[in-house]
Amino acid sequence: MEPSERAASLLVKLRAFMSDHVYPAEPILEAHAASDRRWEVHPKVEELKALAKAAGLWNLWLPRDSGRLLKIAPGRPGTDESEADAWMRGPGLTNLEYAHLAGCMGASVWASEFFNCSAPDTGNMEVLLRYGTKAQQERWLRPLLLGTIRSCFAMTEPAVASSDATNVTSSIVRRGDSYVVNGRKWWTSGACDPRCELAIFMGKTTPDGTPGVPKHRQQTMVLVPMRTKGVTVVRPLPVFGYDDAPHGHAETTFEDVVVSVKDAELLGEGRGFEIAQGRLGPGRLHHCMRLIGMGERALTLAARRAEARVAFGQPLSRNASVLQTLGRARVTLDGARLATLDAARRLDAEGNKAAKGAIAACKVAAPAAAIAVIDAAIQIHGALGVCDDTPLARMFAGARTLRLADGPDEVHLETIAKLEVRRSRM
Amino acid sequence: MEPSERAASLLVKLRAFMSDHVYPAEPILEAHAASDRRWEVHPKVEELKALAKAAGLWNLWLPRDSGRLLKIAPGRPGTDESEADAWMRGPGLTNLEYAHLAGCMGASVWASEFFNCSAPDTGNMEVLLRYGTKAQQERWLRPLLLGTIRSCFAMTEPAVASSDATNVTSSIVRRGDSYVVNGRKWWTSGACDPRCELAIFMGKTTPDGTPGVPKHRQQTMVLVPMRTKGVTVVRPLPVFGYDDAPHGHAETTFEDVVVSVKDAELLGEGRGFEIAQGRLGPGRLHHCMRLIGMGERALTLAARRAEARVAFGQPLSRNASVLQTLGRARVTLDGARLATLDAARRLDAEGNKAAKGAIAACKVAAPAAAIAVIDAAIQIHGALGVCDDTPLARMFAGARTLRLADGPDEVHLETIAKLEVRRSRM
Amino acid sequence: MEPSERAASLLVKLRAFMSDHVYPAEPILEAHAASDRRWEVHPKVEELKALAKAAGLWNLWLPRDSGRLLKIAPGRPGTDESEADAWMRGPGLTNLEYAHLAGCMGASVWASEFFNCSAPDTGNMEVLLRYGTKAQQERWLRPLLLGTIRSCFAMTEPAVASSDATNVTSSIVRRGDSYVVNGRKWWTSGACDPRCELAIFMGKTTPDGTPGVPKHRQQTMVLVPMRTKGVTVVRPLPVFGYDDAPHGHAETTFEDVVVSVKDAELLGEGRGFEIAQGRLGPGRLHHCMRLIGMGERALTLAARRAEARVAFGQPLSRNASVLQTLGRARVTLDGARLATLDAARRLDAEGNKAAKGAIAACKVAAPAAAIAVIDAAIQIHGALGVCDDTPLARMFAGARTLRLADGPDEVHLETIAKLEVRRSRM
Amino acid sequence: MEPSERAASLLVKLRAFMSDHVYPAEPILEAHAASDRRWEVHPKVEELKALAKAAGLWNLWLPRDSGRLLKIAPGRPGTDESEADAWMRGPGLTNLEYAHLAGCMGASVWASEFFNCSAPDTGNMEVLLRYGTKAQQERWLRPLLLGTIRSCFAMTEPAVASSDATNVTSSIVRRGDSYVVNGRKWWTSGACDPRCELAIFMGKTTPDGTPGVPKHRQQTMVLVPMRTKGVTVVRPLPVFGYDDAPHGHAETTFEDVVVSVKDAELLGEGRGFEIAQGRLGPGRLHHCMRLIGMGERALTLAARRAEARVAFGQPLSRNASVLQTLGRARVTLDGARLATLDAARRLDAEGNKAAKGAIAACKVAAPAAAIAVIDAAIQIHGALGVCDDTPLARMFAGARTLRLADGPDEVHLETIAKLEVRRSRM
User: Fold this and answer.
1) CB contacts, 8 Å: C324 with chain A
2) A315 beta partners
3) What subunits make at least 3 CB pairs under 8 angstroms with B?
4) Which residues form the Acyl-CoA oxidase/dehydrogenase middle domain (chains A, B, C, D) (predicted)?
C-alpha cells in the first residue's frame, strides 16, 4: 500500500507546495475568516489555485476512467484551450494513489480547494462526469474542472433523517417541459460561496404511495442554477462556532423554482437514489484520507509542542504520561491510515460493492482516530489548543462532523456487522 | 447528599425561573451572539438580573461566612440601601446547598450571570471578601455584589505553563507609593465585556533568584482598574469558534500601568500565590456543578430527540443502540454528579485541605462526563447537534475547555495519585 | 452517605478482623485452591466463621425487618440456643449501613463467607425469610443462618437466555401431593460445596400456551434437598480458568426428582417470577458493594507496588504515566462507590421500585469500575499480576462475570434509558 | 499486503487443516487440560504434528535466510534423512507471508505447536540458527526443528523489572572451562513440558560496577540442558487460573549448575543482551499475528452466536446494539491486522531497525484489539463465554498477558513516542 512511483513523485511536489505555499497562507486565511470580510473569497485562494495548476497539482482526485467519460470537446493543440484541456483531465490516478495525496492535503483545512480537490465539488463533478449530457458537461463541468465556479449539493433536509436518502420530502413536479422544484434543505455546504453557481438538488418526482414505484425510485436529481428565481440561501449554519466562511453550510429554500427538464435532469426520472449511492463511495474515502492528514498534522504539532514546552522544570517530551499520549496517538492514527489505504486499494481492485465493508470501516475509524489525536494534541497544547492560534480546534470541529456526515457511525457499523454475520455463516 | 430543606425550596424557585425566563431567552441571546452587535450586552440580560434579584435568587454562591467577612457598612433600614444590603449578603449557603443550585443553572450557558453567580466574578468577589480592605470592598465589591459592574482575572500568560501558578513572568515593581505593572496575559475571561471595570492581576514583585524568597512568595495580586492608562484588550480568543461575546476571553497587555499600592495591593506583597490557591477550591467546584447541569440538559435533549425522531421506520428511542447510549450517559453523569456533591459536602465538613483529593477527582470526572454526554447527545441529534439550533455544540466547547482551565486533568490526576500512594502506606 | 455511628463501629471491628484474620488466611486458602484437595472445605474457613460469630460480625446482611419475618421459635434465655438466636437475627442494618461493611469484605474474595454474608446463601435466606413457612424456616433457614449448611439457586439454564427469567424451560409437574421436577440447570453456584444441602429451584408449573396464564405466572419455586434422588451435579464450570472450589459453579440435572408440595413449594404456584424479581434488588447491591471493595484492594496493591518497584532507575510511583493511571483509577472507583452507596440509600428511603434506576446504574458502574481498576493494577504489577501470587487475577475473573450475572449490562442500561426517556417528557 | 501466491496456496492448505484436524481436536485437548493427566502430553498432539509435517505445513515460521544459516549436514538424498532435511528447512517465507499463516493458526490456542511454530521454541531455534555453533545446532537445533524435543527461555526474574533486560541478577561465573550458573527465574514458559530438554539461560558474567564494561555487555546467554543437576522446576504459574498444562509457565531455580563453556556459550561472553534484542523483533510479530487470529475466531463465534441466540423474541443479530458491537469489533480488529501486516512488510523490506516503530505499534494494537474483540464476544455469549465451553475465556487470558510479555504497552508506546518527537523535528 506504499505509493506507486507516480504517486510518490506527485507526493514530493505536493509536500513542497504545502510547505512553500499552504502553511504560510494559513495565518492569512485564518485572520480573514475572523474578519468582517470573511464571506468574500480571499485573493490568496485564487493565487494558490493558479500556482497549483502550474505545478501540475490540479484535479488530482479525478478517477482513472475520467478521460473516457469526459464529453467536452478537446481544445485545439497549441492553444490555451489545450492547456485547459490537460487541467480538465488531471493525472487520472487510482484511488490508492490519490489516497496518499489527499492525506497530505488534509493537513491543512484550507488546502483541498487549491488543488480543485474539495467537497462537494469533487462529488458533483463526478456526478456530471458519469451522468451529465454533453451540454450539461460543457455548461457546468468545464468551469468546475477549471475552478472558475463552485457548486453545492442540496440533499439533506431538516425535517427527516438523512441517513436514509429515500426520506427526502422535497418535490420536483413535472409541468410540461419544466420541473417545478420546492423544498427546504440544509447543510448545503458551499452554497454561501459567492462563486457558487450550481446546486445539484434531490427531490421526489413520485409522491409516496404511488402504486408500482418502489421507495428508491421516487427520487430524481436535477441541476439548479443558484441564480434561478426562488432559490434562497437562508443562513449559514455554524459548526461548533465555525461558519466556515466563505464556503458556508447553508440552510436553503427552493420555492417554485422552474428549470427546464432537458437542462436539469440527471440520468433520468427516478434515478436520484442510484446517483446518490454511487456518489458516496469515493467521497467517503476522500474525507477519510483528509482526516488522516488532519491527524498527522495534529500529531506533529503535539510532538513539537511537547519538545518546546517546559512545565515543572522539564520539557513535556520527557514526561512519561505525555509520551504515552503521543505513542497512543500514533498507534490509533496508523490503524485508521492503513484501513483507509486498504479500502482505496480494494475499491480499485474489486470495485464499489466488494469494498463496501472496507469503506464503511474506514469511515468509522478515520474520524474517530482524527478526533482522538486532535483532542490529545489540544490537551498537550493547553489553552492554546482551543483557540485559533493553531489549526487544532477548527480541525476538531471538522473531524467531529464526519462522524455524522455521509452517514453516521451507527449506520456504517450496522453495514459492517451485517457483512460479518453473513461471513460467519461460511 | 440530597438538598437541605432551604436548598430544596430555592431549587423549586430556580427551576421555575429557568423554565419561565431562561430557556425562553436562549434563542434571543443565541441570535444576538451571532449578530454584529454581539459585543454589546443584550438588554435581556439586565432584565433577567432584575427579575432574579426580585425572586431572591441573587448571589446564591456567597459562602456561609460572608456576612462576617463583609466590611461594607449596612444600609439604613427601610431604604433602598437596605434592600441592596440583602442582595449583597445572599442566602449564605453551604457548598453542598449551592451545588444543587449551580447544577440547575448549568443547564443554560447563559444562566449563571442572571443570578450574579458567574465566573470569574464570583472568584474575584470571594478574593475581595476575604482579603480586601474596607475601602477596596466599598469601591469594587459593592458594585460587583450588586451586579452593576463586572471584572476579570489576569493570571494566565501565553509564555509559560500556567498549570504552575508560580511561573508568571509579569512584573509588579514598587516605585514609591505606587506599583508599576507590566505583562502580557491571555484567557482574561470577561475583559471584553463593556461593563468590566476591574482586573485582579497577578505578577512577580520579587524577581527569580532573589535570595531568601521562596518560589511561591514572589507573586503579588493587585487591583487594576480596566480604564487605567496602559491596559489594552488586544483581542478576544475564540474557543472552538465561539468568541463568547460580549464576555470574551481576552489577550490583554499591561504596559507601565501605575496603581497606588494602598488601593491596589491585596493581602500583602508576596502573597499572590496563597490567594490563587485559596481562590481555586470553590471555583473548581462551581465549574463542576455547572458541568453536571450541562450534562443533564444534554441528556434531556437527547432523550426527547430519541422519542421524536423517526429513522428506518421507528423512533430512535426504540433502537437498542440508542438506548444503550442514553443509559450509559446517565451512568456516567450520575457518577460525576455524586462525586461533585461529595466534594462539596467534604469541603463544608472538613475544609479545603481535607477535600483536596475529592475536589481534584470531581474536577476530572465532571468535564469528562459532560463531554461524553454532550457528545452522545450531538450524535443522537445528527447534524442538528453541531450547529447552534441546540445549545449542545456551545456546551461542548465550554465543557472541553474545563479539562484545561483551573488545572489540566493531568495535574489533578497526579494530585489524586500522590494522595493514593500515601494512603496505601497505611 | 457516610456510615452511621453503628455502621462505623462495626466497620472498625470488621477492618481489624480483615487485617488480623482474613488477609493472613488468603495464602493458605489460595494454596488449598491450587491443591488436589480443593473440593474439600479447608478447616480455616470454619475456624474464621467461629471467630466472626464471636466478634459479632455475623449475618450483617440481614435486613432491618428480618426480626419481624423470622418465624423460628426463640431460644430459651441463658442457653446456647439464645446465643444462636442472636446470631440468627444479626444487627439488622439498613442497606446503606451494610453497603459500607460489604465494601470492606469485598477486599478479599474469600471473606464474605466468614461472616455468613456470601451469595447465593444470602439471597436464599432472604427468600426463606420472606416466603418460607414456619416449617421451612425451621428446617432450612435456621441452619443457613447459623452457617452449618449451605445452599444453591438453580435458575439459569444453558438452553435459554436467562436475562429474561420467564424463559426457564424446566418443568415442575404436580402429581398428587408431590411435585416431579425435571430440568438442566447451570451456573448453580455453590452446588459443589460438600456442605450444600438445599437447592432453590425454579421451573414451570404451567406449560407455555396454557390459556389464561400470563407469561410471568407460569413459574414456581420449590425447595429441593440436594440429596434427593435424581439430583446430579454434572460438573463444575470454570470462570476464566478458576473453578472456585469448593464452592463451584455447577451444571446440574434434575431427573424425575420428587418432592412433597407442602415441604417444597414457596409462596404458591405461579409466583416464582415474583420471588425472583424481589430477590435481585438487594442481591445486586451486595455484589456492587463487594466489587467496590475489590477495586479498593486492587488500588491499594497498585499504589504499594508503584512505590516498591524500581524500573529504569526510579520507583514507578515517580513515573508520570503510572501516576495518571493511579489517579484515574481513584476517580473511576469513587464514581462507582458513590453510585452504589446512593442506590443503597434510595433503596432504604424509597423502596425497591423507586430505586430501580439507581440500582441498575450501580450494577453497570461497579463491575466496570472494578474491572478497570483491577486491570490497571495488573498492568502495574507486570507478569506478577496475572498469576495467583496476588489476588488480582482471581478478582478480575470474578468482576468480569458480574457484567453478566444478575442481568447483563445491556439489560440494565436499557432499563435506565427507558426511565430517562420517561423523565425527559416532564 | 495481500498474501503472495505462495502464501495464498499454503493458506488454503492451512485452513483446511484447521477445519479438518484442529477445531475437532479442541474439545479433546480442552478436556485433557481439565483432567488429572493434564501435565502429560496428549497423544493427539504428536498425531497432529505428524499430519502437519506430511501436509507440508511444518516450520512455516523459518525465515527466508535460514538455509544459509543452517550448519547441520544435509541428509543423504533418497533416505529418511533427506525428508527430515526438508522439514528442517521449511518453506522459507517472508515475514509478511508468514503473518498470514500465523494469523490463521492463532484462531486456536493449541494450533501453533502442531506446525512447530510455537513460542518459545521458534525464538530459541532462531537464536540457535543465528548464533549456534555447528555442534550446538546438531545437538539442539536438529531435534527442535524436527519437533522431537521442546525448549524454554529463562530470562525473566521475579526480583527485577524485566522490561529492561539489562536488569537480570542471575550469575554465570567462569570456573576453568565451565560456567557455574545460579539464579531464580520465572515465566519460563514450556519448562513444565515433559519433552522440554533445553533452557536458554541469561545471566550476568560481569558483575555490576565492573570498570570498563557497559551495562548492556554484562549479560551472557548459555545453553543449559534441563536434566542438569541443580535445575529445578519449582512450580507452574497460573495465568488467570489457567496453568496451560503441559506447557506451563514455570518458576525455576538454577543452583550451582555446571555447564561446559564450549557447549553452553552463545555468541560470546557479554553478548546476551544483543541476542535478546535480536530475538524479540520477529517474536513480537508472531505474537501479534496470532492475536489477530484469536480476534478473528472470537468475532466469528460472536457473529454466529448473535444469529443463533434468541432473546426478547428475536435473534441477537437483529438487535441494533449487538450489531454496533460486532461492527466495532471488525473495525478495531482490522486496524490491528493491517498494522501487523504492515510491520511485517517493513521488517522484510527495511529491516529490524527501520521497522522498530511499526513493530512496537502493532505490539500495542494487536493485544488491545484482541482483548476488545474477545471481551465483546464473551459479553454476547453471556455466561457461556466465561467458561471453557468456548475458547474465548482462555484466549482472553492469553491475549491479556501479551500486554505485558515481550515488553509492556508502556515501554512500546514510549519507543513510538520518541520516534514521533524525532520525526516532528524534520
Assistant:
1) 321, 324
2) A310
3) A, C, D
4) 152-257
Query: Residues with Cβ < 8 Å from D418, sequence gap 6 or more?
Result: A323
Using the Cβ of D307 and the Cβ atoms of chain A, whether some distance falls under 8 Å is answered with yes
- Cβ contact (<8 Å) for A420 and D320? no
Contacts of A323 in chain C (CB under 8 A): 321
Q: Taking Cα atoms as reference points, which of D291, D124, D288 lies closest to residue D191?
A: D124
Closest of D110, D272, D288 to residue D200, by C-alpha: D272
Please report, for the domain that includes residue C200, its CATH number.
2.40.110.10
Domain ranges, residue A352: 274-424
Quick check: B303 and C418 in contact, CB under 8 A? Answer: no
Residue B352: Cβ-neighbour burial (10 angstroms; 0-12, 13-18, 19+): middle
Decide if A162 and B384 are in contact by the 8 Å CB cutoff: no
Whether residue D308 lies within 8 A of chain A, CB to CB, comes out as no
Mean residue pLDDT across chain B: 95
CB atoms within 10 A of CB B255: 13
Res. A412 pLDDT band, cuts 50 70 90: very high
- Coil, helix or strand at residue B22: helix
Whether the per-residue pLDDT at B208 is higher than 90: the answer is no
pLDDT band at B161 (very low <50, low <70, confident <90, very high): confident
CB B289 within 8 A of CB B240: no
Q: Are residues A25 and A102 in the same domain?
A: yes
| Residue that is last in its domain, among C148, C168, C187 | C148
Which residue of chain D has the CA closest to B319? Answer: D320
Specify the higher pLDDT residue, A77 or C13.
C13
Instruction: Encode pLDDT of B243-276 as tens digits.
Output: 999 999 999 999 999 999 999 999 999 999 999 8
Report the distance separating Cα A421 and Cα D305, nearest Å. 9
CB-based contact (8 Å) between C222 and chain A?
no
- Final residue before a domain boundary, out of B103, B126, B148: B148
Question: Number of folded domains in chain B?
Answer: 3
The values of phi and psi at residue D63, to 5°, are -70, 160
Same domain, C331 and C223: no
Task: Establish if A418 touches chain D: CB-CB under 8 angstroms.
Answer: yes
C68 and C39 fall within a common domain: yes
CA B83 to mean position of chain CA atoms: 26
Domain harbouring A283, CATH code: 1.20.140.10
User: Which domain CATH number covers B28?
Assistant: 1.10.540.10
Percent of residues, chain D, with pLDDT higher than 90:
87
A324 and C321 in contact by Cβ < 8 A? yes
3-class SS letters over B350-372: HHHHHCHHHHHHHHHHHHHHHHH
pLDDT at C412 over 90: yes
Domain shared by D354 and D284, yes or no? yes
Residues D171 and D305 both lie in one domain: no
Reported as a single tens digit per residue, the pLDDT across D317-354 is: 999 999 999 999 999 999 999 999 999 999 999 998 99
Three-state DSSP class for D258? strand
Contact D281, D347 (CB under 8 A): yes
Cβ atoms of B366 and B340 within 8 Å: the answer is yes
Residues A125 and A181 in one domain: no
Confidence bin at B76 (pLDDT 50/70/90): confident
Q: What is the ipTM of this complex?
A: 0.96
**Shared domain check, C408 and C317:** yes
Q: Do D324 and B321 touch (CB under 8 A)?
A: yes
pLDDT by residue (tens digit) across C122-133?
999 999 999 999
Q: How many other CB atoms are there within 10 angstroms of residue A425's CB atom?
A: 9
Q: Mean pLDDT throughout B327-339?
A: 98
Of all residues in chain D, what percent are helix, strand and coil, respectively (each to 5)?
55, 15, 30
Confidence of residue D402 (pLDDT cuts 50, 70, 90): very high
